């Protein structure tokens, strides 16, 4: 009889450190409740392989015989019962499944290239779970130029691939997601309303379960010490792959002008509020490059949540990491500039309009007084309460990871 295992399905080894950093809590809790957790790279199971889909040797190594994942970076430490499996093709994947009945946590995509993975999951009758617990603003991004053929092709592949996968799932050619855990109360409520999609069961997900966000779980389970001793900047990543795919071309001259404005504003805040400045980077960002740009301040990776809990004020541009600050009712400013990528600008605007976060345009802002700014920031916190109830903590005092693990055990084990 085959033994059941839970697997974490990714499709890009390059993003492994990012995934481990963002999903660290749920990975740890799963490992406490299951004998083993396999992280499987499905990237080599797609129609065509990405030549750059390789393990980051600075942060990781593997035992080639046992496929054990060795994490070198102390900031990414995880339980020892996590095993990395990197199949080189369908044959390897089939051999892996010979003595295993697996339930997959789906972290791969729905592009045309990913369709082969979906066909394989249908063939091997693999049950799937998806966790949507970020609680962030979901903004659709677009090519920055009207006539950028490459960017529009990337957009086409992304959007039509999504629609095709959903359509094929309704014809039974690829599997639907068995359970989707979501922290969006708005989404959860809308799916319960009578509609043609509900009547004919056309949804891509068989069942939705409402949970609290991972930000809520982190704060509620770790009980971090809250303070107000820092001003924290969640920095913009100009060279983010999603923006590059949409035709964004970061120019050194533009980036220099942009960061001159950012540093000037940080200096104003530091002078007036007498607080230490800390710059938090995206896990994929270039630390050495940013240390040169912010040479007056401390620049860190993998410490965003910790610094937010210790913040007096949080500044950001477009990152989902801001949800921790919203949940903790921190003073928040979303920064904008015409020098930013158009998609970053749009996302920043969404946080201002949809969440109520106070906005500052670095191109024309004049600092009047620290009391005036604090008054505006405290007023904007009131607008953010509804967002917290709808997207970050919609499920009372229940821990999201407990609900996920309990449901997986009762349904599949």
Keyword list:
Rossmann fold; 413 residues
Layout of helices and strands, plus pairs?
Elements: E1 3-10, H1 16-22, H2 24-33, E2 37-41, E3 60-63, E4 68-71, E5 82-85, H3 90-96, E6 100-106, H4 115-123, E7 127-132, H5 149-170, E8 179-182, H6 185-192, H7 196-199, E9 208-210, H8 214-222, E10 230-234, H9 241-245, H10 252-273, E11 276-280, H11 287-293, E12 298-300, H12 304-309, E13 311-316, H13 323-327, E14 331-336, H14 342-355, E15 358-361, H15 370-383, H16 385-392, H17 400-412
Parallel strand pairs: 1-2, 1-6, 2-5, 6-7, 7-8, 8-9, 10-11, 10-13, 11-12, 13-14, 14-15
Antiparallel strand pairs: 3-4
> What structural class do you assign from the helix and strand content?
alpha/beta
Tally of helical segments = 17
Q: Would you tell me which CATH topology of the largest domain applies?
A: Rossmann fold
Shape: globular
Our count of domains comes out at 2
* Biggest sheet features: 7 strands, parallel
Quick check: average pLDDT? 91
Beginning-to-end CA distance, first to last residue:
14 Å
Radius of gyration: 22 Å
Assembly status? single chain
Q: Which strand-content bin applies to the residues? A: 15-25%
Helix content: 40-55%
| Extended strand count | 15
Main-sheet strand order equals: 5-2-1-6-7-8-9
The low-confidence runs, each spanning 5 or more residues with pLDDT under 50, are: none
CATH architecture of the largest domain: 3-Layer(aba) Sandwich
Class of the largest domain, according to the CATH hierarchy?
Alpha Beta
Question: What do these coordinates show?
Answer:
By secondary structure, the protein is an alpha/beta fold. It has 2 domains: 3-212 and 394-412, Rossmann fold; 225-392, 3-Layer(aba) Sandwich (Rossmann fold), CATH 3.40.50.2000. It is built from 17 helices and 15 strands. The strands form 3 sheets. The protein has a 7-stranded parallel β-sheet, sandwiched between helices. Strands 12-11-10-13-14-15 form a 6-stranded parallel β-sheet, sandwiched between helices. Strands 3-4 form a two-stranded antiparallel ribbon. Strand 7 (127-132), helix 5 and strand 8 form a beta-alpha-beta unit. The relative contact order is 0.12.
């Amino acid at each position: 009889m085959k033994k059941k295992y839970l697997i974490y399905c990714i499709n890009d080894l390059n993003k492994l450190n990012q995934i481990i950093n963002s999903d660290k809590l749920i990975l740890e809790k799963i490992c406490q409740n299951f004998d083993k957790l396999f992280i499987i790279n499905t990237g080599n199971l797609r129609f065509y392989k990405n030549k750059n889909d390789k393990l980051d040797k600075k942060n990781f190594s593997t035992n080639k015989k046992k496929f054990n994942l060795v994490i070198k970076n102390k900031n990414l430490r995880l339980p020892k019962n996590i095993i990395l499996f990197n199949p080189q093709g369908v044959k390897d994947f089939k051999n892996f499944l010979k003595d295993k009945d697996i339930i997959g946590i789906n972290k791969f995509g729905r592009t045309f290239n990913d369709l082969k993975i979906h066909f394989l999951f249908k063939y091997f009758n693999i049950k799937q779970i998806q966790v949507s617990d970020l609680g962030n603003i979901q903004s659709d991004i677009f090519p920055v130029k009207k006539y950028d053929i490459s960017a529009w092709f990337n957009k086409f592949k992304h959007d039509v691939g999504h629609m095709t996968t959903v359509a094929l799932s309704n014809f039974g050619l690829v599997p639907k997601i068995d359970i989707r855990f979501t922290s969006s109360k708005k989404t959860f409520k809308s799916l319960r309303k009578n509609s043609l999609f509900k009547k004919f069961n056309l949804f891509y997900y068989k069942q939705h379960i409402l949970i609290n966000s991972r930000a809520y779980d982190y704060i509620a389970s770790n009980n971090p010490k809250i303070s107000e001793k820092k001003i924290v900047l969640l920095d913009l990543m100009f060279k983010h792959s999603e923006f590059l795919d949409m035709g964004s071309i970061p120019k050194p001259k533009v980036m220099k002008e942009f960061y001159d404005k950012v540093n000037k504003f940080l200096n104003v805040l530091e002078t007036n509020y007498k607080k230490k400045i800390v710059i938090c980077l995206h896990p994929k960002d270039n630390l050495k490059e940013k240390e040169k740009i912010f040479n007056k301040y401390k620049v860190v990776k993998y410490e965003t949540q910790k610094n937010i809990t210790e913040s007096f004020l949080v500044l950001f541009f477009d990152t989902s990491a801001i949800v921790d600050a919203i949940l903790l009712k921190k003073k928040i400013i979303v920064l904008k500039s015409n020098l930013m990528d158009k998609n970053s600008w749009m996302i920043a605007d969404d946080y201002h309009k949809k969440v109520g976060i106070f906005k500052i345009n670095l191109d024309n802002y004049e600092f009047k007084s620290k009391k005036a700014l604090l008054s505006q920031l405290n007023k904007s916190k009131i607008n953010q309460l509804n967002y917290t109830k709808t997207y970050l903590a919609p499920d009372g005092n229940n821990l999201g990871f407990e609900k996920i693990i309990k449901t997986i055990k009762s349904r599949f084990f």
